[in-house]
Amino acid sequence: MHSRRAFSALLAGLLAKLRAESDDEIREIRTYRHAQGLFVRVQSAGGAFGWGEAESGLPELMETFIHAGLKKNALGQSIWDAERVWDRMFFDQHDLGPGGALTGAIAGIDLALWDLRGRVLQQPVHRLIGGKYRDRIRVYGSFGVGFGRRMTPSQAASKARKFVERGYRAVKLRMQIRESRQNPDPDPTFEYVKAVREAIGPETELLVDINNGYTAERAIAVGLRLRDEFRVRYYEDPVSDQNLEDYAAVTRALQGIATIAGEKQYTRWQLRDLIVRGNVDYINPDVIKTGGLTEMKKIAAIAQAYQKPIICHNTRPTVSTAASLHFMASIPNAGPFLEAPDEDEFHALLSVVSRQFRFEQGYLTVPVTPGLGIEFDESKLRAASRVI
Ligand SMILES: [Mg+2]
Questions:
Q1: pLDDT in tens, 250-279
Q2: Strands 353-355, 334-340: parallel, antiparallel or unpaired by DSSP?
Q3: 210 CA distance to ligand 1 middle (Å)
Q4: What is the pLDDT averaged over residues 203-217?
Q5: Which residues, other chains included, contact 183 with Cβ-Cβ below 8 Å and sequence gap of 6+?
Q6: C-alpha 341 – ligand 1 centre gap (Å)
């Protein structure tokens, strides 16, 4: 009699354990293709869920990548096995990478899993990835001029002034010259920088992004003028990211104006190569391009070993921004800024989401609610998206 009761209790315990373990299986992965972002919802067998964001440069391709590729690496795995799930996705699909679409798609699932874990444990994600060094992150307002075709210098000045009026203390002007228009002649850069500097006043920090448009020699000459005539202290992607030694030549030649690169490096190995060969002053990997927080933490460790602070690249105002805040809160080598997109361009998306971070006097607060701190109104998002 006694032993039968003990046996029943043991059996019940085992069944409960099995049930709990199977509750933790990754059961469902859905994508929501909204006009302003590609979002990934991951759900466990027990019904817990989380939201991630994938790189959405070509969203149809990314949907296919996730559903035809990564899903089979992630479904059935444990929601707790961050490293193992990441490795399965990355190394099984390596021939279709190693960066770009592969890591951008992985980011969608990786971020959703971090959000899910935070919700299950009722903890903000930074507590799960190392804890918190800081409660808020300074942001810079970022905008592109489309190499003078989308925006005139006076329009750029108005745009920059709008950021300052809203409380931003730093602005980035993206020239978007790119390799295909290398060393343009005439070069519109100074005309834009002059207009923007006059609009934002001498105290606002001004970052200038060339978007890979110069040769090293030209980049050095322009960088000296930006520093001396316009008080520019941050100089992003002055040269092509296809020749990392050019970054080193520019960085070595310029003092008092820091080089930034890394938005087109997508893995720990690519960032290592950028640091070792290019030796830029700051690196700016992007949490939705590099494969999510799991990979970003590794990149941060490599960067710390080389004394490189990280200024996260970030062009999306919801999941990407929230994940970047948790990441920058959690690392010792956070740089002086996080990039913030122009929210006026995201009204449609921002109407279907609530965000647990606030803009205050040039800073964004780090979310302290469970998960990443992003809550989509699922029915509204669904109505505005293609859902697979
Ligand atoms: Mg850039």
A1: 999 999 999 999 999 999 999 999 999 999
A2: unpaired
A3: 8
A4: 98
A5: 213, 214, 215, 218
A6: 12
- Domains in the chain (CATH in brackets) are 24-122 (3.30.390.10), 127-373 (3.20.20.120)
Nearest Cα to Cα of residue 111 among 56, 153, 165? 56
Cα 175 to ligand 1 centre (Å): 9
Q: Which residues surround ligand 1, an ion (CB under 5 A)?
A: 209, 236
| CA atoms of 213 and 181, how far apart (whole Å) | 7
Count of Cβ atoms closer than 10 Å to residue 79 Cβ: 25
- 365 CA from centroid of ligand 1 (Å): 23
Mean of pLDDT over the chain: 96
User: What global pTM score does this model have?
Assistant: 0.94
CA of 237 to the centre of ligand 1 (A): 6
State the distance from the centre of ligand 1 to the C-alpha of 262, rounded, in angstroms. 8
Q: What whole-number distance in Å separates Cα of residue 259 and Cα of residue 276? A: 14
67: how many CB neighbours lie within 10 A of its CB? 15
CA 289 / ligand 1 centre spacing (Å): 13
Q: Is the dihedral angle over the CA atoms 50, 364, 366, 297 positive or is it negative? A: positive
Q: How far is the CA of 86 from the centre of ligand 1 (A)?
A: 26
Q: Is the peptide bond before 153 cis (omega within 30 degrees of 0)?
A: no
